[in-house]
């Protein structure tokens, strides 16, 4: 059974986990009207740090802006809540989940409801399973497409978007795959159920553009920055499905998935069928931020003790 942490932050204070409840008629429960973030904290030589906390909370506010969800706290207050909930649960390596949602206050689609805000934190290992960071996963292309850009904005990290993600992820698991990859409504490659994609050709990284109905991932941005800094070419471009089968290496990235190699797609081996050298190099650069072997020149590690 799922183990829950003792404490959670909700609407301004830390409370026992069991007390952070929502009314069954809350707007968000019916209509998907929530915005959220997924953030990780790591142990570092300088103590526990939250990775790109401020950038994640900025994205939370941008997601809320798209849907006119008024967040009754400042960015600084939500940052502080993230730190507080980690400390209250005695966590170091954790996953943080801030969420702002339309609460109880009206049943119409455009009802002016109050916004409730919560931040949870719990220990989380590799998202796609034990050993996947080393061994990689087998992925498939989903029969479900991502939503078109003029339907639901993929650039907002909103609750309702994750109906699409659930279809992609559950279909993949049902068919025995580790994760599903979706095509955009254009037919071009988009992203994983909850991860961005990087393909490797001749030592260069190729990643799909935000126009392909994907979330502008903070891990994606981190890897683009680290790669360029280290002389690895990065190309953002439209990519057709078959390039998944033709590339030398392939990996998914996201806060939860970190850098997960993909060793096959639709039963076809990617490259040698094993995680390759560029993927390993990106993992080393990324995880090096947390053991100190990659210098954090960008202020991405925000101390929990803040
Ligand atoms: N795409 C989707 C659909 C996601 O849910 C996520 C996870 N937030 C990502 C990409 C990766 O984004 P990030 O690196 O900011 O976690």
Shape: globular
Number of domains: 2
Q: What's the count of strands?
A: 17
Provide mean pLDDT, rounded.
Answer: 97
Proportion in β-strands: 25-35%
SSE arrangement, N to C: EEHEEEHHEEHEHEEEEHEHEEEHE
Uncertain stretches of 5 or more adjacent residues: none
Largest sheet: 9 strands, mixed
> Measured on Cα atoms, how large is the radius of gyration?
19 Å
Instruction: Classify the secondary structure makeup into a structural class.
Output: alpha+beta
CATH class of the largest domain: Alpha Beta
CATH fold-type name of the largest domain: D-amino Acid Aminotransferase, Chain A, domain 2
Q: What is the CATH architecture term of the largest domain?
A: Alpha-Beta Barrel
Helix content: 25-40%
The end-to-end span amounts to 33 Å
Which ions, cofactors or small ligands are bound in this entry? 4'-deoxy-4'-aminopyridoxal-5'-phosphate
According to CATH, the homologous superfamily of the largest domain is D-amino Acid Aminotransferase, subunit A, domain 2
State the helix count.
Answer: 8
Structure in words:
With about 300 residues, this protein is of the alpha+beta class. The protein is about 25% helix and about 25% strand. The protein is built from eight helices and 17 strands. Strands 8, 9, 10, 11, 12, 13, 14, 15 and 16 form a nine-stranded mixed sheet that branches. Strands 1, 2, 3, 4, 5, 6, 7 and 17 form an eight-stranded antiparallel sheet that branches. A hairpin with a 5-residue loop joins strand 9 and strand 10. The mean pLDDT is about 95. Bound molecules: 4'-deoxy-4'-aminopyridoxal-5'-phosphate (PMP). The site of 4'-deoxy-4'-aminopyridoxal-5'-phosphate (PMP) has 14 residues, from helix 6.
């Amino acid at each position: 059974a799922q183990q829950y942490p003792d404490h959670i932050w909700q609407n301004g204070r830390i409370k026992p986990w069991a007390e952070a409840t929502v009314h069954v008629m809350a707007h968000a429960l019916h209509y998907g009207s929530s915005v959220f973030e997924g953030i990780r904290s790591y142990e570092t030589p300088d103590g526990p740090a939250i990775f790109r906390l401020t950038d994640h909370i900025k994205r939370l506010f941008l997601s809320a802006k798209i849907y006119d969800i008024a967040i009754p706290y400042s960015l600084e207050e939500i940052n502080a809540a993230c730190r507080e909930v980690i400390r209250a649960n005695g966590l170091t390596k954790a996953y943080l989940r801030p969420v702002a949602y339309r609460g109880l206050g009206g049943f119409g689609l455009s009802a002016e409801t109050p916004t409730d805000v919560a931040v949870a934190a719990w220990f989380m290992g590799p998202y796609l399973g034990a050993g996947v960071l080393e061994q990689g996963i087998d992925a498939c292309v989903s029969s479900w497409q991502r939503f078109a850009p003029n339907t639901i904005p993929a650039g907002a990290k909103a609750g309702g978007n994750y109906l699409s993600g659930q279809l992609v992820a559950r279909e993949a698991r049902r068919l025995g795959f580790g994760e599903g990859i979706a095509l955009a409504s254009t037919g071009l490659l988009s992203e994983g159920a909850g991860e961005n994609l990087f393909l490797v050709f001749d030592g260069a990284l190729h990643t799909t553009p935000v126009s392909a109905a994907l979330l502008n991932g903070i891990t994606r941005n981190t890897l683009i920055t680290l790669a360029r800094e280290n002389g690895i070419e990065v190309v953002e471009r439209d990519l057709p499905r078959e390039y998944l089968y033709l590339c030398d290496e392939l990996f998914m990235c996201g806060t939860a998935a970190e850098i997960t190699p993909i060793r096959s797609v639709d039963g076809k081996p990617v490259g040698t069928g094993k995680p390759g050298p560029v993927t390993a190099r990106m993992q080393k650069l990324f995880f090096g931020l947390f053991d100190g072997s990659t210098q954090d020149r960008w202020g991405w590690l925000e101390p929990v003790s803040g």
